[in-house]
Amino acid sequence: MGTTTTRTTQADTHLWRIDEHCIQCGAAQTAFPNLVAEGKDRYFFHRQPESAAETADAWRAALLCPVSAVRAPEGLKMPEGLFPQELGPDLYRLGYNARASWGAHSYLLRRPNGNVMIDGPRWTRQLVEWLEANGGLSDVLLTHKDDVGDSARYAKHFSARVWIHADDRDGALFASDLIEGTEPVTVADDILAVPVPGHTRGSVVFLAGSVLFTGDSLAWSHDDKHLVAFRRVCWYDWPTQLRSLARLTAYPFDRVLPGHGGKVHDTADALHAALVDMLRRYRSPEPKT
What we know:
There is one protein chain. By secondary structure, the protein is an alpha+beta fold. The chain folds into two domains: 1-82, Alpha-Beta Plaits, CATH 3.30.70; 85-282, Ribonuclease Z/Hydroxyacylglutathione hydrolase-like (Metallo-beta-lactamase, Chain A, 4-Layer Sandwich), CATH 3.60.15.10. The protein has six helices and 19 strands. The chain has helices at 27-31, 52-64, 125-133, 151-158, 238-246, 268-282, and strands at 17-18, 36-38, 43-45, 70-71, 85-88, 91-93, 107-109, 116-118, 139-141, 161-165, 177-179, 185-187, 191-195, 204-208, 211-215, 219-221, 226-228, 255-258, 264-265. Strands 5-6-7-8-9-10-11 form a seven-stranded mixed β-sheet, with helices on one face. Strands 12-13-14-15-18-19 form a six-stranded mixed β-sheet, with no helix packed on it. A two-stranded antiparallel sheet has the order 1-4. It starts with 16 loop residues before the first strand and ends in a 7-residue tail after the last helix.
């Protein structure tokens, strides 16, 4: 068992800790729930890292925190190459989450026909140099207008096309390509864009093979071990969001990678069942969020 840490103070400089600048975006906790938990007024390390791999994850939590509230033990040296973080073959979490998108996660697909960024991290030299050394960037896919981050700067630097739904274009006026209507459409050569209005009017999920990038429309709860949607932060219309998510039962996927909330990797059958169960729960008289 690891050492449990319920709360640390600024005096605990020998421990991993999260300071008072935390904006409670959940980025560190949803990425590394084995180390970080939610507290009343900020997130905290419920357990100190014990292995080299866990220490690397704690450093990743520090780098993806949009306000630098995750603090390392004094004198501990940060390793190199923490982000992009490989999640699967040619699939990466970019890290360096942007405050402008309230700490939303962003991702990268490496492809022979051009790399694809899904939602925007903050602008960093580390990511730019990695992208320059690994094929650049051909397309940026924006799930909705809240999680744009610094995608405009990346798109300009790499001369990449930018895709967003027309109903959310006011959040990305620099977009080069618009998704319209409610029917699925292929974008960036081979990725299926499925409009899912609800969280915002122009929310979209992107299905790349068996990987579903869901923005803020769908996520995994590490605490409850099931799929969730966020009624309290549904900015357009909740019944519309449920109808939109019901359409996803037609598509097989074995990963869910959200902007906010936890990620999950399981069989397509298991995630289909989890989606059906979530829709049943939310359609009950007192939906749980």
